[in-house]
Design a protein that fits this description.
The strands form two sheets. Strands 3-7-4-6-5-8 form a six-stranded mixed β-barrel. The protein has 185 residues and is an alpha+beta fold. β5 and β6 form a beta hairpin. About 10% of the residues have low confidence. InterPro entries: Kiwellin-like, RlpA-like_sf. It is found in: Secreted. This is Ripening-related protein 1.
Length: 185
């Protein structure tokens, strides 16, 4: 009897663990094909990439699970008019000074505007900074005028203003950096 219970329970436990791990996995949701932007239409400030004709770009509707120490990649973005961020911020339809600690989160973490105008803590380079979420770094679309002819964001991006980089004591020309972030209380 004991052997029969073990042989029945163990496979069920394995299936439940597999499904639980599977539910926390963020898989690509699709791909879009890039086109070369019209002349002068892709802002390469802060080393932003422009879409390339014929190149396929992965899209995501999700991001990795959020925890008290969510691992992410920090990138540099301008939230000012004429900056590489493009249009006004999604949360308040405003531009923001690059001297203010503001960020855009990948689509899954942006969570249908749930984090709009809320603060997150960012930890990197042995320092921390509190930043306001003002925009989405779109992981579902790109390579069009609405996205400044830039590729879709990866699903693990915290796109930050110069003020965030400065607070972390990191030169702006570093490109990108591994960080951890969390929601504030």
């Amino acid at each position: 009897m004991k052997k029969q219970v073990c042989s029945t329970v163990f496979p069920l436990l394995c299936i439940l663990l597999f499904l639980s791990a599977e539910a926390q996995t963020c898989r690509p949701s699709g791909r879009i094909q890039g086109e070369n932007p019209p002349p002068g239409q892709c802002n390469t400030e802060n080393d932003s990439d422009c879409c390339k004709d014929g190149k396929w770009y992965t899209t995501y509707k999700c991001s990795p699970p959020v925890s008290s120490q969510t691992k992410a990649t920090l990138t540099l973005n301008s939230f000012e008019p004429g900056g590489d961020g493009g249009a006004p911020s999604e949360c308040d339809n405003q531009y923001h000074s690059d001297d203010d600690p503001v960020v855009a989160l990948s689509t899954g973490w942006f969570n249908h505007r749930e984090r709009c105008l809320k603060y997150i803590n960012i930890h990197g380079n042995g320092k921390s900074v509190r930043a306001k979420v003002v925009d989405e770094c779109d992981s579902t679309m790109g390579c069009d005028s609405d996205h400044d002819y830039q590729p879709p964001c990866r699903n693990n991006i915290v796109d930050a203003s110069k003020a965030v980089w400065k607070a972390l004591g990191v030169p702006e020309n570093k490109g990108e950096m591994d960080i951890y972030w969390s929601d504030t209380d």
